[in-house]
Design a protein that fits this description.
single chain; mainly alpha; 4 helices; 75% helix
Length: 128
């Protein structure tokens, strides 16, 4: 997958989570979890952008692992929201599926970058 394709997926995922969070109940707990999931779901897109400008392979791997940690946090939030019954059963399955796919991509990318000594950070598709 090209960097721009992954970036687009991350942005679309974050946007879908924001849409979902805005439809959550207006209770104290739902607002709290809604705020948290917005932070964790938007973070991978932002950190992936930073990874594209990494200063070293180690910096790139570190930022990719931050993306992974945030995606895992988002997954827990999605499961909690599902458990609370704030949405109809199955309504979050698309988000959970995409979250799991993104986790898999970042696990594989971090492993590849860590193991391969010749890998350098990808050049950003953005011009400086």
């Amino acid at each position: 997958m090209k960097a721009i394709e992954l970036e687009t997926r991350l942005i679309e995922f974050a946007s879908r989570v924001i849409d979902m969070a805005e439809k959550m109940p207006k209770t104290f707990a739902a607002k709290h979890i809604g705020s948290q999931i917005i932070r964790s779901a938007t973070s991978p897109a932002l950190n992936y952008g930073e990874a594209q400008g990494a200063e070293s392979k180690e910096d790139f791997v570190h930022k990719m692992k931050i993306c992974l940690k945030e995606l895992r946090e988002t997954l827990i939030c999605l499961k909690l929201i599902e458990q609370r019954g704030w949405f109809a059963q199955g309504k979050l399955s698309g988000l959970i599926k995409e979250n799991n796919e993104l986790v898999s991509i970042f696990v594989a990318s971090a492993k590849t970058a860590t193991k391969n000594p010749s890998i350098s950070p990808p050049k950003s598709h953005l011009k400086s």
